[in-house]
Amino acid sequence: MTPSETALKQLYEDFAEAGLLPLWTQREDLMPMTPQPAAHAHVWHWRDLYPIAQRAGELVPVGRGGERRAIALANPGLPGEPYATPTLWAAVQYLGPREVAPSHRHSQGAFRFVLEGEGVWTVVDGDPVAMRRGDLLLTPGWAFHEHHNPTDRPMAWLDGLDIPLVSGLDAGFFEFGPDRLADSSTPDRSRAERLWAHPGLRPLSGVGAPAANSPLAAYRWQHTDAALSAQLELESEGHPGTAGEGHAAVRFTNPTSGGDALATLRTEMHRLRAGSALPVTRVVGSAVWQVFSGTGTVRIGDRTVRLATGDLVAVPSWQPFSVEADTDLDLFTFSDAPVYEALNLYRTKIGADAS
Amino acid sequence: MTPSETALKQLYEDFAEAGLLPLWTQREDLMPMTPQPAAHAHVWHWRDLYPIAQRAGELVPVGRGGERRAIALANPGLPGEPYATPTLWAAVQYLGPREVAPSHRHSQGAFRFVLEGEGVWTVVDGDPVAMRRGDLLLTPGWAFHEHHNPTDRPMAWLDGLDIPLVSGLDAGFFEFGPDRLADSSTPDRSRAERLWAHPGLRPLSGVGAPAANSPLAAYRWQHTDAALSAQLELESEGHPGTAGEGHAAVRFTNPTSGGDALATLRTEMHRLRAGSALPVTRVVGSAVWQVFSGTGTVRIGDRTVRLATGDLVAVPSWQPFSVEADTDLDLFTFSDAPVYEALNLYRTKIGADAS
Amino acid sequence: MTPSETALKQLYEDFAEAGLLPLWTQREDLMPMTPQPAAHAHVWHWRDLYPIAQRAGELVPVGRGGERRAIALANPGLPGEPYATPTLWAAVQYLGPREVAPSHRHSQGAFRFVLEGEGVWTVVDGDPVAMRRGDLLLTPGWAFHEHHNPTDRPMAWLDGLDIPLVSGLDAGFFEFGPDRLADSSTPDRSRAERLWAHPGLRPLSGVGAPAANSPLAAYRWQHTDAALSAQLELESEGHPGTAGEGHAAVRFTNPTSGGDALATLRTEMHRLRAGSALPVTRVVGSAVWQVFSGTGTVRIGDRTVRLATGDLVAVPSWQPFSVEADTDLDLFTFSDAPVYEALNLYRTKIGADAS
Amino acid sequence: MTPSETALKQLYEDFAEAGLLPLWTQREDLMPMTPQPAAHAHVWHWRDLYPIAQRAGELVPVGRGGERRAIALANPGLPGEPYATPTLWAAVQYLGPREVAPSHRHSQGAFRFVLEGEGVWTVVDGDPVAMRRGDLLLTPGWAFHEHHNPTDRPMAWLDGLDIPLVSGLDAGFFEFGPDRLADSSTPDRSRAERLWAHPGLRPLSGVGAPAANSPLAAYRWQHTDAALSAQLELESEGHPGTAGEGHAAVRFTNPTSGGDALATLRTEMHRLRAGSALPVTRVVGSAVWQVFSGTGTVRIGDRTVRLATGDLVAVPSWQPFSVEADTDLDLFTFSDAPVYEALNLYRTKIGADAS
């Protein structure tokens, strides 16, 4: 070892001793030319997920402590973490006949999306919200919520949360609610919907500055389906309205602001005519897509996977992503896009540029 | 005349000569302790208005030049001006069988509110919008619009605009459109509604920054009625939601922002249970109210007037205003409140303070 | 008279009787093709104004009732009204040695701009603000304010307010303050400046949502002059920064929002190199310009007027306006532009299009 | 093993096989009752840092690849990561006589804060910005920047970036700039300052919608010091203005919005009178503090450490933090607070509640 090598070795040891790390040995890892996500593009098939959820329903109780019988998608690029992507948590939650998932609240924002079945009510801050096929339900950060199944049939659905984001930000608070159901009634429509689910109408009792999260507890499939159908019909009639050719899409929004329904999560439903496609797109930030109905083919980077109803796809940051529809294809998606927009970190490329 | 009186007289003459006016002789008029509107509180009864509109339908043609068979409420405190208040224009517009009110556009924002009847389509930027009882239709500033009546029956409705405001601000632009109807079809729902009238759902083709005016061309009575009913039902069940006791109310809003449907005009529908009341309120800025159904009594300042369906009330700035409902009572109202909120000039007093 | 003429005559009489006015006879006046301001383009020369103000100083006392010895520019197109334009009030205020203009507050927003002289303090909500040549001082709506001259010399300045706007909107409130000066001290800098006049620095005690009006009570000539000089120097060095060739300009802004210093009034200072020009511009809304130093020529519509220091120009809505600088020319201007921007009524044309 | 134990074991194996992880075994880790940061409260002493930086200056070249001779604070709770906290990167950067740190740009937002010394210019998008004691310099995300030292003396400063945040979000882009200095001149003030460093004055060429990051490249110590002094003087005179008793503070803001100078980083300077204190505070999100001058004592959770000039403190999320000033004490701090505010995740407790 030359004297200068010795000095350098000593310097690095002294860095470590002093609680320091030099930039120049790690610059490329810390500041890559483009995002280098550890998360992988990955597909989970519903034919695998649902039977496992059923078995969990038989073997694992639901209740205080675990709180929820929720089985999270664990991205293979993030070993040991129950995270679909670095910011998004996605899980199948399963509630058996007569079961109750007890009341709690947390900083993390959450939604439920119902692939199939019905019969569970989510009680959000005391307001019972029915869950049915195709519905999107919100439980914004710090709202008390509990689920109960007053029927004789089990029910499963998709839970989406910003758990990894909030965890990475050390921003999580959690509180247990009362052990007894706040309201065990099973109304067809929640009170939130009765107040807010009227297009363009804002209750005078609810006017004021924009709220961070939507006050509308549920977005019903009947409305979503009608909105998507209308876009494709307009296209057939020669009018604008679709997001692209053969591609209808709606964003679930907060009626007090016109922005995303949840402060940290974007939620959308897309419909492709058979033979149509989502064009290749790269987005900074990650997303999860779920097939609501139909079949198609997804491409992410080099991977190509056939998709059927219920299949879930994790799309890491800046990976080229596209979908082709074999049949008419309905896709639900959620992402962390509001985070990037709020922090001036959003970028996207669409079409030839993105490939 | 003393020398100083002479000097003063000369000073005032020189003021006039130089194009000047001293503040001290007019201070109280220019800057009153509280608003001293020239406009009067005034009521126009539908039983008077509608027959006159019918006669105008027989005697006055509609077409280029006059553009519209619209008969404006002329506030007796603003003689010679066809203004309901210093900022608001309100008129009964009447369109006979097979008539067309030709296409034009203007800076002034406008809406139509339908008290009774149906059978006219308003074509807004080429999109035909059916008009039916209880509907609110928008024609935002600078949108081309025309009305046509393809039926055998006449139809009348309320027009509301910000003509006096825009006139006072010297901000008016006007353009004639084509003489031929852009689209003579008579669809049940406009394309704008097909895209936007889904609660909380925003077409992906329409996401972006908030628009100044709502893209939703029509707010249908079916939705407004349902929203008001739901609030009163919630109240009956012991839940919050009404604006006051026995008082349901919705504001017509812009789904891209959650704010008022039009940049300069606030529009709302109120429902009072029989025996309930709008509490005494003073607001800076003026409003027009129209009884949609039912009977009641309005008090403005010292005046008390019985109201029936179709009656119109002008409420000048800062006048104590209240309404008592004899029967169940539905009231439409529009005002200039967004102007005052945007300019930091809004004030209000409610209840005992306002009397 | 034919029967139909008789019927029509009767109809118009019945309109009047019922408090109605038809649109079709007035459409063009109510909704012109482009703004048709009643206000005229007009110039008031300082050589006329100042001597009259001096004479008023000798002949007219200042005090309660009249409140201010302010002599307003009265636009010849708005006879009887002390209004420079339909929205703007501009006056020369004159305060003699040892005089006090007593404390009051009002909804109307106000500023003072100092053409020459010094020695008066404006006390805004108890904070004494020195007035000196080239300074812009704010007294936002509803702030108590009073002026006192502790010196042996008189002082005059330009007052700008939104009196006509607030009057047209029936939004004015007024309150007398205490008869005794809140603070008779004569500090070099106000407390507001000591807290806020540091570039880009916001006191932690003053962070929060944007305020409607700027908390910075005074914008000093030393800073304005330096900012304008810097822009022209940058241009000379080949760098961007000027508003146009040979044209430096700054807007007085609210450090809590970056927007206009006052909610209803835009205030700016422009500097033209000798031989440079403000290009022909049309703007919806009106403005007042004052020459701060130098000479030039203004063109508004067909009028051309030579300008010297202190001269004031009223520019009505949508009139083509340009200025050519004979010498280096500093121009102060205020306008109602924030009103039009807030209400989605703003339009402008610059250059060849505007002529 | 009972049959049900076997079934459960099999279930967990099948979870793993299917790429799933159950919530119920990890709920408390994923969603703690309050933030449980892995990062530690930690203090780095300048007496240790600066000599190491000097030795690095002798032993390690600066240039392409490593890009910067920056030595990062590595939080002992985040082993192997050069991160001061989970979102914040803080480093001492050292540039020897005549050295150049080459041009590049990246998504990550950055600032420089100068503890001592001078003689380096940072060239931001071609605009040379002098660095001197007490100055804060910005290099917002995606701005090209390079540093050069045209003097014979070395210089060191603090770099702050959002590298960990951007890395966790997979949002990093990086580009090398030209190898030659864009501008080797050494002006006293940058062009950005000449345009923007005038209190409340916005260049007309720079008006428009708020920018995500401040256009003001440097906040000079002369202004910061004056602002802090003024607050304490106002307090001494009995006027409001300080953040607390004996505690002056300013936030570095974006003059186009009044918000934080950088989209993801809050930057502030605090001044405590000898004997005064920052009250105990808990904040969601993390911060780094650096003593600019003076001595004091910091308490974070159970730890108490004496601080002297240049010492750096990492404060993890929700840890009780307070400082007592032995002498007059100036403290610079930066944090990720804008992130939490934008995402509706911000919470704080001050005083007794926070202990």
TrEMBL record, chains A, B, C, D:
Keywords: Dioxygenase, Oxidoreductase. GO terms for molecular function: oxidoreductase activity, acting on single donors with incorporation of molecular oxygen, incorporation of two atoms of oxygen. Pfam families: Cupin_2. Residues 93-159 form the Cupin type-2 domain. This is Gentisate 1,2-dioxygenase. The lineage of its organism: Bacteria, Bacillati, Actinomycetota, Actinomycetes, Kitasatosporales.
